[in-house]
């Protein structure tokens, strides 16, 4: 989620003044944005040393943790919003992480590369795995341990008992509400626990 | 990055009694301390560095006798704790044996050497004494208090005892209290000292002897716990001292034995036995959650105005990352600003003294943030806000290769000196 415009569009899902937990916060750009423009507070979670350093440098509070170990550090409903942007595809147990997100936060916001975006479909039809701006890795050398689609997430959300309150696709810095599974490279969901 | 060059310790005498947690008082005492850098006009740039078990006020720079400060790799001009920006104070705690009033000094009430009668000290007592010293130095509020291990406990205690007199707490390789295992190690060390026939119930000074055997064993067991299994294996393995086994039960066979005996011998030459007992007890007693029914979060409720940086090291089994995470949780529960770095370092507890690039980069970044908050000109000079000369750590802050950063000199051996890669300076080896 390096694209600034995407970040701003996702930030719009976060109510002003929220207490935010950003899982896989990267260099802290989103939290810094939320703090500066929406008066939010909170913490980022990161595993990578370079990102932890970058967060401390920009004054974003960051906690170095492996998300695979769960969110035992955080009490139920202790945050207004738990963000999980571009993180889900790196985690082994997506479903457990979603449940944890819903447990810790009142609102969950998730984004991930939509594998069903039409150029990806064409590429697979042609017999090859896609390599795109959003999925920039070769199949044999990638930090992503899975790929999924916008439509897949809708199914998982139902199965996990999450109430999706908003969802859309992002494509080239624009919100795609029409046929997002086909037309958007990034899927975005906002949900609440039931 | 430069060195502070030669530094000179100072002393401050306090005649007003210090009430201690035990109910006793420290009637009249002197603290040794050192300062580096300059207190700014607003008196807002002071950073206090708290020492661990066997260290002192000699944090950085070089004494006339050549001894290098125990955290010289962190503190100095252009270093992560930059003395060009911050006014840095190192203070020796009471009960120590490096200049501040301690058990080897004369008890004004009796005219005799304190020895075993020196009043028991706690982390909180030390912090109260440090607060008095800062007052005398004209510092109403510290920009930060920093410490590792037992020093980290003092840094934490500052935010609980004097939360409005400090803005940031940087606590490295520390814990909210000692585990039973940790207390057990301390107790073995204490028994070694106390059962040494030369201890004489703590009044050995009058007998003209020193319980060196006890001190040696205490140091040996301590030293083992400061290192990781892997670090010890990497440095010593099963290496023999001689070409082949001697089949002796009492002579040294393995290099690790030789190393531990050497460390023990050195330590017994300069460290005071009563000080060792006092300081290990202070470690044992530290437990801020105790008076809050064991609820650490409630203990930290008073620290809401402070910012925290916590750092732990993956192979530190004496003050493990899990203990630091307990602190993080207590702070998060209070919605307190906290950053936490868990550094993947091979050296065990010792890592907090070593020059690990990732560790120092995080410390530097946090100090940059403190300086920026103060609006100091120093915060905006080239290389401060963004990676630049003298700013980026080796590797430019990028994630390092596993084991790629061998801190310190080429040999990441245990017990390496903070700077220079030689032997630890004395008083030094500020373990635990």
Tell how many strands the DSSP assignment of chain A holds: 8
The residue ranges of chain A in which pLDDT falls below 50 over 5 or more consecutive positions are none
**Helix share, percent of chain A:** 25-40%
Structural class of chain A: alpha/beta
Please state the CA-atom Rg of chain B, rounded to the nearest Å.
Answer: 21 Å
Largest sheet of chain A: 8 strands, mixed
Distance between the termini of chain B: 27 Å
Shape of chain B: globular
Helical content of chain B (DSSP H or I, runs of 4+): 25-40%
Give the ordered list of helices and strands of chain A.
HEHEHEEHEHHEEHE
Computed structural class of chain B: alpha/beta
Strand content of chain A: 25-35%
Query: What strand order characterises the main sheet of chain B?
Result: 1-4-8-5-9-10-11-12
Oligomerization state of this entry?
A: heterodimer
Q: Please count the beta strands of chain B (DSSP E, at least 2 residues each).
A: 12
Strand order of the largest sheet of chain A: 3-2-1-4-5-8-6-7
What pattern of helices and strands is seen along the backbone of chain B?
EEEEEEEEHEHEHHHHHHEHEH
Radius of gyration of chain A: 16 Å
Mean pLDDT of chain A: 93
Overall pLDDT of chain B: 89
What secondary-structure arrangement, pairings included, does this model have?
The complex is a heterodimer of chains A (194) and B (432).
Chain A: H1 4-11, E1 19-23, H2 29-38, E2 41-46, H3 49-57, E3 62-64, E4 79-85, H4 94-104, E5 105-113, H5 118-125, H6 150-160, E6 162-171, E7 174-176, H7 180-183, E8 186-193
Chain B: E1 10-14, E2 18-19, E3 25-26, E4 29-36, E5 46-50, E6 75-76, E7 81-82, E8 87-91, H1 123-136, E9 142-148, H2 150-161, E10 166-172, H3 180-194, H4 212-226, H5 229-235, H6 255-270, H7 273-285, H8 296-299, E11 307-313, H9 321-333, E12 337-343, H10 357-374
Parallel strand pairs in B: 5-8, 5-9, 6-7, 9-10, 10-11, 11-12
Antiparallel strand pairs in B: 1-4, 2-3, 4-8
């Amino acid at each position: 989620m390096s694209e600034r415009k995407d970040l701003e569009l996702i930030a719009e899902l976060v109510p002003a003044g929220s207490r935010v937990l950003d899982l896989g916060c990267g260099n802290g750009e989103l939290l810094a944005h939320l703090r500066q423009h929406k008066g939010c507070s909170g913490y980022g979670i990161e595993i990578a040393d370079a990102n932890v350093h970058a967060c401390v440098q920009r004054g974003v509070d960051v906690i170095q943790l492996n998300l695979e170990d769960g969110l035992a550090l955080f009490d139920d409903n202790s945050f207004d919003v738990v963000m999980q942007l571009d993180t889900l595809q790196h985690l082994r147990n997506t479903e457990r992480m979603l449940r944890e997100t819903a447990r810790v936060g009142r609102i969950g916001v998730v984004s991930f590369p939509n594998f069903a975006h039409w150029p990806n479909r064409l590429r697979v039809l042609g017999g090859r795995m896609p390599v795109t701006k959003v999925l920039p890795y070769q199949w044999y050398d990638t930090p992503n341990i899975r790929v999924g689609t916008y439509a897949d997430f809708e199914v998982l959300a139902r199965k996990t008992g999450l109430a999706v309150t908003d969802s859309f696709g992002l494509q080239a810095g624009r919100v795609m509400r029409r046929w997002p599974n086909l037309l958007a490279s990034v899927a975005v969901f906002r949900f609440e626990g039931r | 990055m430069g060195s502070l060059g030669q530094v000179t310790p100072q002393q401050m005498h306090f005649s007003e009694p210090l009430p201690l947690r035990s109910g006793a008082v420290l009637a009249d005492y002197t603290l040794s301390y050192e300062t580096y850098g300059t207190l700014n006009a607003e008196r807002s740039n002071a950073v206090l560095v708290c020492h661990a078990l066997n260290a002192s006020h000699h944090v950085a720079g070089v004494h006339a006798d050549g001894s290098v400060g125990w955290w010289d790799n962190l503190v100095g001009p252009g270093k992560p704790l930059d003395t060009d920006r911050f006014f840095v104070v190192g203070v020796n705690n009471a009960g120590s044996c490096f200049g501040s009033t301690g058990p080897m000094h004369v008890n004004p009430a009796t005219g005799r050497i304190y020895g075993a009668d020196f009043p028991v000290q706690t982390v909180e007592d030390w912090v109260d004494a440090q607060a008095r010293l800062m007052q005398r130095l004209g510092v109403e509020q510290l920009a930060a208090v920093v410490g590792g291990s037992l020093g980290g406990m003092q840094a934490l205690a500052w935010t609980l005892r004097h939360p409005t007199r400090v803005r940031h707490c940087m606590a490295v390789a520390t814990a909210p209290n000692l585990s039973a295992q940790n207390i057990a190690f301390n107790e073995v060390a204490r028994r070694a000292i106390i059962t040494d026939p030369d201890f004489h119930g703590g009044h050995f000074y009058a007998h003209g002897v020193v319980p060196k055997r006890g001190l040696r064993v205490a140091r040996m067991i301590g030293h083992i716990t400061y290192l990781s299994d892997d670090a010890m294996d990497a440095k010593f393995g099963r290496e023999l001292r001689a070409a082949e086994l001697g089949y002796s039960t009492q002579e040294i066979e393995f290099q690790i034995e030789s190393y531990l005996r050497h460390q023990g011998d050195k330590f017994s030459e300069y460290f005071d036995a009563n000080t060792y007992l006092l300081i290990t007890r202070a470690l044992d007693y530290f437990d801020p959650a105790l008076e809050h029914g064991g609820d650490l979060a409630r203990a930290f409720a008073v620290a809401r105005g402070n910012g925290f940086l916590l750092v732990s090291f993956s192979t530190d089994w004496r003050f493990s990352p899990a203990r630091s995470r307990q602190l993080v949780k207590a702070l998060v529960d209070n919605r307190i600003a906290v950053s936490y770095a868990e550094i993947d370092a091979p050296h065990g507890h010792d890592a907090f003294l070593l020059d690990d690039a990732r560790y120092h980069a995080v410390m530097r970044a946090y100090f940059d943030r403190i300086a920026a908050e103060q609006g100091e000109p120093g915060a905006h000079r080239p290389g401060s806000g963004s990676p630049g000369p003298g700013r980026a750590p080796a590797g430019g802050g990028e994630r390092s290769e596993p084991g790629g950063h061998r801190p310190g000199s080429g040999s990441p051996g245990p017990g390496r000196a903070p700077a220079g890669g030689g032997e630890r300076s004395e008083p030094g080896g500020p373990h635990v």
